[in-house]
Amino acid sequence: MESYLSMRNISKTFSSTGLKANDNVNLEVRKGEIHALVGENGAGKTTLMNILYGIEQPDTGTIMLSGKEIMITNPLAANKAGIGMVHQHFKLVNEFTVAQNVVLGTEPMKGAFFFDNRKAEADVAAVIEKNRFHISPEMKISEISVGQMQQVEIIKMLYRKAELLILDEPTSVLTEQEIQRLFKTLRELIKQGKTIIIITHKLAEVKDISDRITVMRKGRVISVKDTADVDESEISRMMVGKSVVFDFDKGVDGCRDAVMSLENVTIKKKRQGRPILDGISFEASTCEIIGITGVAGNGLTELEDVIAGLERISSGRVYHNDQDITNITPKALRDRGLAYVPTDRLKRGSSLETSVKENLILTTHHDFMNSGGVFDEVKINEHSKRLISEYLIDGHADVPIGTLSGGNIQKVILARELEMVKDFVLFSEPTWGLDIASSEFIYEKMLEMRARGVAVILISSNIDEILALADTVIVMYRGRIVAKKASGPELTREVIGEYMLGLKDDYSTDDDCSSDNDHSKNDFKGEDN
Amino acid sequence: MKSNKKLLAAAVIFLLLITPVLVFAGGQQEAEPEAPMVEKEEAPEKKAEPFALAVVVPGVTAGSPLYEQLVEGAQQAVDKYPNASMKVVELGFNQAEWAEKMTSIVATGKYDVVISSNPSMPFVCMELAGQFPDQKFIFVDAFIEGHPQMASFLYNQVEQSYMLGYLAGLITTSDMTGANADLKIGIVVAQEYPALNKMMVPGFLQGAQAVNADITLDYRVVGNWYDANKAGELAKSMVDAGVDVIGVICGGAAPGVFEVAKERNKYVMYWDDNSYAKAPGVIAGCGALHQTKLVSEVVEDAINGKVKFGTGVKLNSRDGYIEFIGDDPNYLDIIPAAMQAEHKKVVDSIMSGSLVLEVPEL
Amino acid sequence: MKVNRSDWFVTASALLITLGAAFAVMLVMIFIMSETPGETIYYFFAGPLTNKYYLGNMFNSAIPLILTGLGIAFAFRSSMFNLGGEGQVYAGGLAATAVALPLPAAGAFFGITISLLAAVVTGAVIAGLSGFFKMKWRTDELISSFLISNALIYIVDNFITGPLDDPENNLLVTSKIAEQYWFKKIFLPSNLDISIFFIAIIAVLAFYYLFKTHQGYEMRMCGLNPEFARYGGINVGKYMILPMLWSGAFHGLAGAVAVFGTSHACYKGFSGGMGWNGIAVALIARNNPIAVIPAALFFAYLEAGAKSAMINADVTIEIASIVQSVVFFLITAQAIYNFVKFRRKAV
What we know:
heterotrimer, B: 362 residues, alpha/beta, elongated, C: 347 residues, 73% helix, globular
């Protein structure tokens, strides 16, 4: 069968990190199908779609649409070619109505200057009618739900006469009913002759909605299959691939005292159907690395923020050494000795225009004052000199940290945070985008912490890392803990993969009416020990 | 930290850059004598010697009748003498800058005489006169006596105010359509100042009370010379309180009062300039100062070296510089003939000197 | 994103180009509006430097600008926007005057100290309010400081023309403060007074505070990257208030210095432009306290040039201020552009 879209030999390397996001990728999509593009975080799916939508330019490769080669230099050009994309994070103006958002950028005009609101509403109403959406064009974005916002994004693309729709993680923020409604819409669109590419991690959904699947891993296409021919665990195996084996000693037994514990932590946001974090309970103990994993969009980011004190929780409690620290300020948490290596190194972990030296003293700058509150420059200089050599940082103390490479920025952060460790430390995606040598350096430091008796919390979507380091593994799916297991030979990549992708759930509440009842079931530790 | 050092360096570079200019300036200033006055106008009757006049407008000329007359009068005089020249400088509305700007003018050393018109100017110039002991000043509409560098000419505002007050008294006690039974008149002023407090307000009330001793005065301050809205609000509340004639001394804020008076069929008294046309049917009485004439004469004297510095001259209506405008069609229209005659008697008695109204100590 | 040696060069050359463009526009305008353009240009550029009086006054008018520039720079450094400078300067000047007036003329040192203190506290409280509102209710300090300041201007006006007005003179002004309180003039006949030395020292201290102290560090971190600061355990809320307190304090002091050094009484509207120009000064100085000094001098130079052209040549006060504002506009446009770029990067 003739391909409707074909992307051939697409390669893309990001100069900032040196990461090869797409390596000679080929993608064939047929007219009128729903094509699922699956893969782990960082597999290169989003990059590929960004290239298709004109947000990124490929280093090499060609794109053909309906047999003709096209150049897509920006999203507008993509729109013109009939390609529309719905991003994971919606790009809507809260104070505008649905209609105004839909026509934004291609507004119907009255004369040369005036926006024709009536025509906008009529046009948008026609699109809504034709595709059987349930939404009023006069409503303001601030009045509608997250599921409806997504509909608005899709309507926006249809209004621009998109024939090929790209949906990036469309279900990550939706409730079950909203997902079903979305799928109904998608099937409706196929009937009208549209073509859809859907990016997702959720295998059940892949099975449910798609006709064909392209699996990507580490920037390459691993396999292309008809959905009917594969089952979910097969897809899962293709996605996660073979383990990269790190072999580290496991923690010492017998020194497990809870340092930080979370009890039934829940975050509910306005207008969002389901909680972002739903009844999370676990303990981080001395001499232990607790590894928390999951696919992006399943609550890892929020959990990171909760542990760091940067996000308030709606209900539940947090304890540190048996003292209630629920919703205390980040400063209070830091005063209690929390060391924290964040996922976002550039925005949160460092101040790019500030010197390495000043970045290094963020959490400890109180120790460098003399009595008058004036800095002791000599001490600060010695401090940065020592850390630069101890942590093998390739960079001068006085240059802005933004001029360093990603690995060195991470080492600066690591140096700063580990300098102040007392009894607990949080690492979030500590090796993301780093080379093997830098990663191993970080692993060593992590193990060193554990050996010192520090409670280490490791949040990572990298399963290999979790398997290699964690003494206890927690898997999150859709804001809930779906597995909590002690590491051991029977805990393999495949097992974790099935939990991560929602194929298995130890704490399923499907047969339960109330989701709050699972607290007792959730509240255990080390069952497999 | 690095970039701060760079900024510091930049600061140094900037200073280095402007240093030559500063040095140049220093050199210039050495060359100039400390006391900038070179030529002195002491020698009288030597017409060939050039005469430079600075006409200083404390504010902005356009829109202010007295300042327009100041410039016009000076121009008339200067035009008569080929050796005389003048420059008009406006000081703007920020009074805090007046003294400094005035000093800048004097410091140029270019001007034989500085002339200005505003009761505040002697006060503004007092300090700088000490710094430039050779500079001569002439002030009209102001009073200062005994300062060897200053000559001043003060209008007897008691007389003008008395004339207007007397008319106001006649109106409020009359049965004219806009008048009511209350014996209340009002005055809206921009700000308080000695000439106002000691001449204009008392003169106005005195005139009114000469008609009926029970008449009271409702006195309101706008706080600036431009806020017509506020002046209007004040006028409204005065009318509500029973006022039927309002005196207006508030410059650019006056239209606010005009509007209220027009709406409520009340009367306005106006000072210093024939302004009936500004609010026909509303302005029932108007005085005028003949500043063009005064300035023209004074400047001519100055060119001829005849001005006596150190004196303060008080000008009465019989000197011809103050007038009540009693022949304007608007006035003739609004005021009944009998009342016109009664008012004219009082005006005439002031003009002839039979009714003497002294200028108080300011 | 990369900051290196050439970055500074780019900034400097950009500033020079803008200055060049500004001056070019100014020349064109003068040629259009003046009948004797040669003379006008001479007085515009050389006027402020050609005699002792103008030169001294130029330095004198830089004094409050240095202070307001410092005030704005402190706020900017913490990513806070203080648009209420006008009102803070004005209220500071009034507070100092109101405190100084009833005090006995003797013991001037004590009197000056508490009057200045009153100005500093007044300014700090006014600006601090906006910071507090931001911390408490996330109100935009840019809007709130502007609105509060505008309301204050009317209140201060009311004090000057009402209860504190001196009916003995013909101006809208309070009574003069006792002569013992006047700052000593150091460059007669100009108004330049001794406070310029103290102000220069304050600028250096401000630099020191910002870059060498623990509070300055926390303040800058909050400004450069608030998320980073919060993550690192800095009380970000505190640094919404503190920089505004400093900013207001500098503005209040500017008002007091203008009164005690130059006008010796609180004139209605005396602060006109000091607050706004402070913003431009800080932007040109790229929020560096020491660079604020030459930036303020540059502004004072422009102002003095306009005045000199007005007095000596044939331009009227309006034309002089139009030319001046065009130059200000061009310069601040460039500086604001830089600032916005900087803020975007930071956030």
